[in-house]
Amino acid sequence: MDPESLDLARLQFALTAGTHFLFVSLTLGLVTLVACVQTRATLTGSEVHWRMTRFWGQLYVVNYAVGIVTGLVMELQLGLNWGGLGHFAGNVFGSSLALETLIAFFLESTFLGLWIFGWGRLNRWAHLALIWGITLTACASAYWIMVSNGFLQNPVGAEVVDGVLRLTDVRAVLTNPSAVVAVGHVLSGAMVAAGFLMAGVSAYHLRRDTPDQEFFRRSLRIGLAVTLPFLLLTAGMGGMHLGVLEDTQPLKLTAAFGDGSELSRLQAEAEAAYGPGDYVPSPAGGAAFYLMVCCWVVMLVVSVTGIVLMRSDRRVAASRRRLRLLVAAIPLPFVAMIAGWVLRELGRQPWVVYGLLRTEDAISDIAPVTLTVSLIVFTVLFGVLALVNYWLLARFARGGPRAATLGRPGGDRPAEPYLTTAF
Amino acid sequence: METIAVAILGFFTLGYFLLGGADIGVGMVLPFLGRTDRERRLVVTAIAPFFLGNEVWLVAVIGILAGAFPELEATLLHGLYPAFSVLLVGWVVRDMGLWLRGRVDRRGWRLSWDAATVTGSWLVALSWGVVLGEILAGDVGGPGAAGAAVAGAAGAAPLFASHGLAFAALRLTGAPHRRARRAAGRIGEARMPVVTSAVITVAVLAAGVRLEPARAAADPGSLSFLVPAILVVTPFLVAAQAWSWYLFRHRVTEPVYL
Predict the structure, then answer these.
(1) Is A403 on the interface with B (CB under 8 A)?
(2) What distance in Å separates residue B15's CA from the closest CA in chain A?
């Protein structure tokens, strides 16, 4: 295989998956918070909670759009550029992807359409059930994707027959520790991201004395209250995951934390098992790990300071510097999450299916020039998309609850009947 | 098991082309149906509640291909790499047009994103035409017959567009509705969607027969896990879709969120 094609296809997948992950991680966390706020609004009829549902829901929907289109491209890119993976592992890897699209993606999108456009038309309990349906299917989606990815990291429940993987033990695939522990880590990380976003945007409004101080004081409390427990849970899950790595991918760990003699021993072991070659993944995984941990420590400090701060409303108003800190902390969870992915995916190299299929053998036979064109087109497309969406998110975040158009009939008109009954 | 898997694949593929084809077609004829800013918004409203739920039928098809027919997926995507790449670009551009058009209240902003919706919809329709043309000509993975590609694109564009017009005629009111109805001509507003749906069904089924998916099915061990799971969830998927179609069954007279 052309080494240039390999690099191009890897770069393209990394960029697609990275962009996708930046947006879907927030989607996962934010939809859970929106569902909680909407539950409170539905149960108590509280006006401020309805406004919170619409404001945070608006940010969620704007964010969702990028997640879905990058997800579509990624799903097809697996087939377009990585035909060898489908050929070798399709029987196992393909099944979990198939179930992800049907059980999770399909329902999530159908429910989301109903939730957005059914606002004011559905009875409030049905509407509430929809947001919880979206939350559950989003989590299910994360689970199935991690089952797929976990299989690549730690291929259990399958055997190689005639050069192709066969599924032998469904339960082993579904309970793969590389999937289950990682999904816990990712989901709690998503909650941290959503918590910091909520706290940061609220802090922005509190610091500037914009209208709706009560609205943002409440939001700040929810956001911060979410960050601390989920920061601890993320770390706990991460620690457990290091244990999983010791058993399943010792080279990933050793390459990241650089014990030279251990590394040469593992390299020799791998050569004995798989033949000559370089089996040591890039040491950049270690840098990514330390970056992730540094972000975590800073987030922990910010979270604890914020929680001390929010004990009284007076203190919130008085400590503008700490509010600014919360605004500045918004990107931290995203940096940490991307770093975590870099560790996970770089550490899998040179394998795509750990110990069974090399990345260079998974790539489709495509000319470098075709891949270059595709890489440029999609990178420009996603770059524009991500920038436009970040700009929009910032605009809606700054605009506050009065600017939210989600859930308003006509988008910009007061509530009025807007249907005729002919079809 | 293979037969059931093929039936499932056919069901979701037809679902996509019949439902998704309608909103792609509406996107193609958006400038024809909506001449003013408000009219265009109403035309978009006709598909707004559905396009997200429609495109996931295709997501499901790709998933089913990856899980139950991995070899077929590899052959198709690899053999028709440029067409599928253009399809993806069109899909992304069109979705962004729809999602973003209403987010900033400026005429220039809406015009630009509507242009994206129209361009993207045409790219999607034309690349589907190329894909279907090549499949029907039996040339997937071959050198690529230019004739089949051109013929497919030339056939698919008017087909998607008329399917969209037929759907728009059922959904719209006022001037955009009159334009859609006029386009149906002598076939008539009520018969038009039946005709376009029938043609789409025939084209898709013919392409399906040509591909012989049963020969490329996954290992029985995988199918015996995947097929029952899909059969269990499909009624729920159809019920959720039916709920959406029932809730938004009325004609559009006022714009919504997009």
Answers:
(1) no
(2) 12
